[in-house]
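Wait, can you check?
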Amino acid sequence: MLEISENEAKINGTVPVGKVMVDGLGVGDVGNIVLKDRQHLSQDGLIIVALAMDSSTGEIVSGPEIISRGFVYVRESENLMEDMKYAIRKELSRLEEAHITDWAVIKLTIKDTLKDFLLQKNKRNPMVLPIILEV
């Protein structure tokens, strides 16, 4: 701090400083985890995997459909998108054969399958968000 009077100016203490995030209506209310997620999304993008399951049998009735945001341009990467769908279908078939219908296990399997596949295929690690619809 600089203290100024009529006769002199002198340094008198310090003021704490640092980065302050402004987000929406709040100031400084963005946590580290939120910032890490935003950085991850900005660098590697997002892949959403949507599928529909029969609530009584656990059988996959539709999908998987893949939506990519900030990862690859879909029209230029149709082969990659089809390969991702194939990898997911293969794992879902394995889960169906094992009679695993727990949504948490299915979602985790989809995440792990895609993360491993994409890391091997193009050395990127997008955020994977599986969505299971109950029909």
